[in-house]
Design a protein that fits this description.
29% of the residues lie in helices and 26% in strands. It is an alpha/beta fold. Among the domains are: 1-8 and 37-187, ANL, N-terminal domain (Rossmann fold, 3-Layer(aba) Sandwich), CATH 3.40.50; 400-498, GMP Synthetase, Chain A, domain 3. The protein has a 9-stranded mixed beta sheet with strand order 3-2-13-12-14-15-16-17-18, with helices on both faces. Strands 5-4-6-7-8 form a 5-stranded parallel beta sheet. It is globular, with a radius of gyration of 23 Å. Pfam families: AMP-binding, AMP-binding_C. InterPro entries: AMP-bd_C, AMP-bd_C_sf, AMP-binding_CS, AMP-dep_synth/lig_dom, ANL_N_sf, ATP-dep_AMP-bd_enzyme. Residues 21-362 form the AMP-dependent synthetase/ligase domain. Residues 412-487 form the AMP-binding enzyme C-terminal domain.
């Protein structure tokens, strides 16, 4: 019988990190309001009382859909404190997708500020008065603040179901165990100076887990409703932010804004980036602007963190196209289609054994068996290890574009496009023509005031990579559309192409 323990429940570490100094500011909000330690702990326990009174127990599921707000944190902490599991949903999720996910996870309570087209669930709580459900804010205000002990749980019990971003298909629910998540604090040493984390992307993704880490380490959080490079830089300077986490496209925007209107960012210690391919040239530019404060992190919800490129590594330009080296406790193997291990320097599927791997896909044993097998997580990414054990990623197996003459990995083409001095951002994707043959398409964003010869861009790709890699069509946009988690939305780009918005031909943004 597996042992139940409160040490398996990460909420205890968060509460200890918030600490017993009642007046310490733990959350700075974008509008200037602050939340102090005693107030945050009080809100967590009041919310837990509300949820418990509405039947939330171990085995219950509370789904949360809202933008970045303090209550999103307190609801999740209260849910997990009770031993129940939380589901963080993306604010921009369609009603159809929301309904499917809410049913899949067997939602007991949905907490939301979206009151139209709600899915059928047992109970709904809203942020403020609404005919759709009970007012959570009013209930919390009336609830007692008596501390509720952290619920002991087994290490293999699920604290969260997180869904993939959906860039390669319908979102899949990924099971995350209490014990694995709690180990993040027991295995990591606290920094000498507590972190000040800027959370400026959705709390339903990496910003949420990094907020947990910052609070658990006795630090504080600067909470923004969404990413805005001007406001992000202003608050880095104002609050002496030490840490943040961004997708590469957002990091590029931050760098561009810093070049336009520089501020004091000397407090930065670690800005993590990852989640999609990055451009070595753009990352080198960011290092030149902010200093060697970046850590590229490669990982997946399925596998957890796999490898990292350290701040020191960022001083070597030739490493900026890599995903760094394996993290402690991680084994990386590069396998051929038949499951055999390839030679060093040869490409194959990246398969890993990690201490932070998730427990599988929700209600999908067949797909789970495909991804988690032989003690390894099969990432679906293609890459190789070089002679220094740095991992190079060519792209995803299912993001590969099959053209006449061979296989095209979009990330490789994006790197070449981003080397053009006029190009600020690029997204490469595959589409099928009238004959069902795949072709390479590209969407570009230009630097302010820049012009570009699209034929010359194709020639650039052809010169560096070969004719089969050159985009058949290039669309110039004002901005690359992003998913809710900040990745280039290639599904939307494909849909736009199919709808004839670009028609596979160059258009001006």
């Amino acid at each position: 019988m597996k042992t139940e323990s409160s040490s398996n429940n990460y909420v205890g570490a968060v509460l200890r990190g918030i600490g017993d100094d009642p007046d310490r500011i733990v959350i700075h909000q974008a509008d200037g309001r602050t939340v102090r330690a005693a107030e945050l702990i009080d809100l967590i326990h009041r919310t837990a009382h509300v949820l418990r009174d509405r039947g939330v127990r171990r085995g219950s599921t509370v789904s949360i859909m809202s933008g970045n707000r303090v209550e999103v944190l307190t609801i999740r902490y209260a849910t997990n404190l009770l031993g129940a599991r939380s589901v963080s949903l993306y604010e921009g999720m369609s009603a159809e997708t929301l309904a499917v996910i809410a049913a899949d996870v067997e939602t007991d309570i949905l907490v939301t500020d979206k009151v139209d087209a709600l899915p059928k669930v047992k109970d709904v709580l809203t942020f403020g008065p609404s005919t759709a459900g009970a007012d959570l804010l009013a209930l919390v205000e009336q609830a007692p603040s008596t501390p509720i002990p952290v619920e002991p749980v087994r290490a293999d019990e699920i604290w969260s179901v997180r869904h993939t971003g959906g860039t390669t298909g319908h979102p899949k629910g990924i099971l995350r165990a209490f014990g694995t998540y709690a180990a993040r604090w027991s295995d990591a040493a606290n920094p000498a100076e507590p972190p000040v984390f800027l959370a400026c992307t959705t709390l339903a993704h990496v910003a949420g887990t990094e907020t947990d880490r910052a609070l658990g380490q006795g630090g504080s959080v600067v909470l923004h409703p969404r990413f805005d490079p001007v406001k992000a830089l202003a608050d880095i300077e104002r609050h002496r932010v030490t840490d943040s986490a961004l997708m590469p496209p957002l990091l590029y925007q931050l760098t561009d804004q810093m070049l336009r209107e520089p501020v004091d960012t000397s407090s930065l210690r670690n800005v993590a980036y990852g989640g999609c391919a990055s451009s070595p040239d753009r990352i080198a530019q960011a290092v030149a602007v902010f200093g060697a404060v970046f850590t590229q992190v490669y990982g997946q919800l399925e596998a957890g963190f796999i490898s990292a490129l350290s701040p020191e590594d960022h001083l070597r330009y030739e490493l900026l196209g890599t995903a760094g080296r394996a993290l402690p406790g991680v084994e990386i193997r590069i396998l051929a289609e038949d499951g055999s291990e390839v030679k060093q320097g040869e490409s194959g599927e990246i398969c890993v054994r990690t201490p932070s791997a998730s427990a599988g896909y929700l209600n999908n044993p067949e797909l789970s068996a495909q991804v988690w097998r032989d003690g390894l997580v099969h990432t679906g990414d293609v890459g190789f290890l070089d002679e220094e054990a740095y991992l190079h990623i060519n792209g995803r197996v299912r993001d590969m574009v099959i053209v006449l003459g061979g296989h095209v990995y979009p990330t490789e083409v994006e790197d070449v496009l981003l080397s053009h001095p006029a190009v600020a951002a690029a997204a490469v994707f595959g589409v099928r023509d009238a004959d069902s043959m795949e072709q390479v398409e590209a969407a570009l964003v230009l630097r302010p005031g820049a012009t570009i010869d699209l034929d010359a861009v194709r020639s650039l790709v052809t010169t560096h990579m070969g004719a089969q890699y050159a985009p058949s069509g290039i669309t110039v946009l004002d901005a690359i559309p992003l998913t809710d988690v900040g990745k280039p939305d290639k599904q939307l780009l494909r849909a736009s192409w199919r709808a004839g918005i670009s028609g596979g031909q160059p258009v001006a943004g």
